[in-house]
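Progress narrative, Year 2. Work on beta-N-acetylhexosaminidase from gut metagenome advanced from sequence curation to structure prediction during this period.
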Amino acid sequence: MTPASKGFYFDHYQGDNAVEPCHIGGYAPLEKVYAYDPVPEELKKQGKEKYVLGVQANNWSEYIYTPARLEYGLYPRALALAEVGWSPMSTRNFKDFARRVDNDHSIRMQHHAINYHIPLVEQPGGSCSHLAFTEQTEVKLKTTRPLDIVYTTDGSAPQVDSKRYTAPIQLNQTTQIRAAVVLPSGIMGPERVITATRSAYAPGVTLDNPKPGLLMNLNWGTYLNPNDIPATHNITNKEVKNIESLRTMTKVPSDVRNVKNYAASVEGYLHIEEDGIYEFSTNNVQLWLDDELAIDNANEIPRYSRNNRQLALGKGYHKIKVIFLGGIFGGWPTYWDAANVNLRKVGGKWKAIAPDQLFHL
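Result:
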């Protein structure tokens, strides 16, 4: 009676994991929860509906640290759970339910100081808060259900009466978009900030006879922040063939007990085949490109990074450095990560950076 596949694990995501706070995984938006029929068709055929006495939902707490975060997962999905329990499928109407949630119910929950979920501003095809372009671009926005989005492009915080989003936002200069959802009740959701940076393609360099792979430096011990890693290392300039080698340097039993922790980095060059806008994603603690910090997950639960970044890169070789911290952070063992760095040309498919793209001197 608690099917994860039907949205009844309330520790699953309600929106894009690139913008939502960390959950265990999955996807359970409000409409999916509301659509569940707890009475199997086989029982209906046999006239045994009366034997289904109720429904329940789970909300596992691996990544829930405060009462407010607990409420964020529960509401308004608990309202959908209630209607699933007391309303037959024939009388349910999600459009009407959403109308009630976003009007009267939202006011009541706010009155009771419940930290309920209001959809965040997202982007089609996967959200990214750090965009790049060379001449002009357009930014498309969406939400998990039809609601008004307000936004500004002058650096000010959005207000209920700010400009409504009705069409893609056209940009030809570096711009900060600050956007939020406004419910029909007039209540605003959390703000989302998207920075779109205009720049020329960062030039790649040429290398004479580069060697395949990367160079690893390693320090034994538990490090909570990359800034704590000493300048001298226990292992220096070890040749490795890929980025994923970062997480293979110690034995990790299934219960993750008594692990000899370490911090490690790999450095070298990433070969880019053609000029373009490229998006990077990783759960590793940091990614550096051309000596600039591209992704910083130091203050995040390293489960699903929310810090993807687009960069305008020219053809050629670009410096790359990836830092891994081994341990359990916020309930998540980083040894369970793939430790890879994913890359895609904007609009393309994600792929892990492959060994044949990596070189060192």
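The two ends are 58 Å apart (CA to CA). Helices lie at 30-34, 41-45, 67-74, 77-86, 94-111.
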